[in-house]
Fold each of these.
Amino acid sequence: MKKRQSEYKPLLFTTTMRNPERLKDFLTVLAEYDGEILTNEIIDKVAKILIQKGLYQPMKITQVVKGKWKNEIELSETETEKVFNDNPQSHKEAGFEKGWPSRFDTWFKIAKELGFVWYWPNEEIKFSESGKMLLDKVKPENELMVFANAFAKYQRQNPFRRVLNKNVPLILLIQTIKLLDNDPAYNGTGISRLEIPLLLCWQNDNAESLYREIKKLRKKHGYSPSNEIILDLCYELLNETKRDDNSILGDYPDDFIRKMRLTGLFSLRGGGRFIDINTKEIATVNYILENYISYPTLTTEKDYFDYIGKVDTNLIATLSVYETPVRTTKAELEKWVNHYAWESIKTEMLNLAQKKSSEDDILRVIEQPLRLEFLTSLAILKKLPNVVVKPNFISDDEGLPTSFASGGNPDIECLEDKDTVLIEVTLLTGTQQHIRESFSVHRHLEEYVKKGTKSYSVFISPKSFIDTERYFDFIKKDGLEVRISNIDKFVSSLETKATLNEVTL
């Protein structure tokens, strides 16, 4: 078979696994087989578990199965087996047999490229140090550390990709932003979202040239170049004739911004129109520039995997989240309370409850579970300004969330009169809601009550699961009160009630 020639290509990390929570869910399933030899039998087992949990949903299914997946209820073994057999895969990936083995590779390819798990037919499945860190459920803040570690090393021209582009996108982004911010002609807000496609198509690691190209673009077209102008520049960089590929303008930049935000190193400015360096993480940015501008050329997938999967403890130690992350301040939160009208906050929360996407430039690049924590904090402060709202998510220098709170903290703490109200939010609705949320909510509340703090918890989700309700009813015997509210009910009550206590009754 003739080997395909390398080309210049725009950067898109993956089309199949864009959500880090979804990636972690998939990896959690595969982690059960860490250390085992990858056979077709194991691939089938993994596929069936993913189907059973509704993480992978083939098209040919019954209405009953569809209903269970919609409500996040696991399938029975019989149902799982039938879905698996009714949906043979025709997919083919290089090095993998046609069918489920190739489908397996599409699921986990990005995880391998980012150094989380190594796999190959008839070889040992091996989770790296960073892959194991990512799956540590007690430390959700590890996600930020792991992605900062991976993207500091991620090369466009790596053995997993046949491209001519040669740079480390994160470093190219940092260097370009620094040049723009240091230019007195500009207002120090970083790179425009509309300029990001140029970086995604850039051929090399020459940030100075990219900066000059952007400067030329701004001089001629300001901050609002037309789509056609950007596409023409991109096609020139890609050595392509014009084609219909508006993904370069939309999906690709959005995916890139999301991925870069996962590192905690970048902030959104100007209502989401600009991407800039997060000043809270200057130490990490400087460390990366000092240690990763020069990078090795690695020719085999395994060597590259070992390189990117190794945790740089010195890099991680520079991140603010490593020890004691700085809380989101009242001023930072109030800034966004003033930025968003109540109707916008309400609509966005109801959209999350209904699994609808956001059109807002800022909110759409914040992962949905984290977005719910952010919006819930804004909603309470917007309608109940006398309540002291203390979210525990990790935020950038604009007060926008970049990572979840550490596992030992509730999502949001609210002080009302003499009560400490612990707000816990989730988008999970089925079996996983109980498994992943009930015990942590219980633990957080118990710790506050033990300290002598007058506290109760409020658990907010699109829809509570029966086992969750039973569990919270059960712990009442220990004097622990967890109030349950659906997102729509919570939002509606905020519009009519005067106190958080009344809202959550």
Note: The chain has a mean pLDDT of 93.
Amino acid sequence: MAEYRLEMENVSKSFPGVKALDGVHLKVRPGTVHALMGENGAGKSTLMKCLFGIYKMDTGSIKIDGKETTIENPDDALHKGLAMVHQELQPIPERSIAENMYLGRYPKKKIGPFAMVDHKTMNEEAEKWLKDVKMSFDPKAKLGTLSIGQMQSVEIAKAVSQSAQIVILDEPTSSLTDNEVEALFRIIRDLKSRGVAMIYISHKMAEIRQIADDITIMRDGTYVGSWEVKDISDDEIVRQMVGRELTNVYPPKEDYRTDEVVLEVQNLCSIHERSFQNCSFKLRKGEILGFGGLVGAQRTEIMEAIFGMRNIASGDVLVKGKKVTIHRPKDAIAEGIGMITEDRRGTGILGCLSIADNVSISSLNQYLEANVMLNHKKIEDLVQENVGKLSIKTPSSKTLIQSLSGGNQQKVIIARWLANNPDVLIMDEPTRGIDVGAKYEIYQIMIDLVKQGKSIIMISSEMPELLGMSNRIIVMCNGKITGDLEDAEATQEKVMSFATQFEN
């Protein structure tokens, strides 16, 4: 048996105006998890798309079990023992679990001259493979009835059903709860014991330590090096990723708050009894107000209500002491409120539009000439200013946003709101799926905004981030506000105590 299940040598790939990969190497041993790390835009996903046949390499070679091979397209990749679980799942929620698992390769049966899908065989096979990854779902159930984590497990079962010997996992835990992550890791360990080689793309250092055997680091489309995980420290990983020492995870915290209340929420109640109820809080000028709590605490829901994305049954929202009525996001924007949503792909980016369009779309009214025509030069100046300010890696402002990495997409969304100049910016999981270097840049932007007298509400499920960036932390549990902690008194233990105050 060959020493390596997979060998990629000297892989290069260019797109118009940018060299995405330049002489990259990757060697993966059988029965191991190989972490692939690098900043957003380093080329990790591009390399995997070259491996899976989504992109054609300009130069380079691929060997599987020591034999050189070419992979023409994803279907060819599947036949050669590769499977890929994408970061952004693309399920068909209205079809069954089995139908999603066997999409494009349905078992057939002949009835006379006609070939039809053999649902009985498909359901039996799907059930077997689901059990194989310790998932006891009914294969006939609609996929849409499952959680994101469970859908992720179905994708892995799909990979196993294809007898894949190389499985690519692109940020597989970005939307999972702790319990779902642990379930995923059990599946991964089981696959390792069967000799399956896995490539694991993640920014989460703790996960890499827990699950990976080897690590390859990329930077700006180039190969930096490979190590056994046990032989490299966290600090060294960060240094190799960003090409510099990162002395602080968070910028120095200063208090820029004034006594002016810019946003007040009074006894806000959702139309849904099980959502947020009787919530009240104040946000001061120059404040970073953190919102903590467990998954399902209704933090996102209350912010979406403030921004006009959800209906409320009762309660008031006051902006600078004035009661306002917000029925839709347009009303919130008019009152100086912006919101970066948690679901970057679903409710953040406009994938079919350019970077320029995505940056300028919430502030176009500011660039109208005679109330009729857009001043495209001013828009381009605005876009270029923000692309430079946020170090967005792109060949052109006309590039489609969907072609950017997840981290650069997030930066574009932040640029959109910087262009709109809101007084209050709600940031829901602002650094999810973002590398450690880009996180610092986003934190610095937040600090700069509050220095300018802006106010930020930050929802975060990462405890260090919550504690490291917030002047004050409000904690929610089961739709109610259970705690309000000043920075000086906030600890992980206190936050968790308030986050678990469930009513019997």
Note: The mean pLDDT is 85.
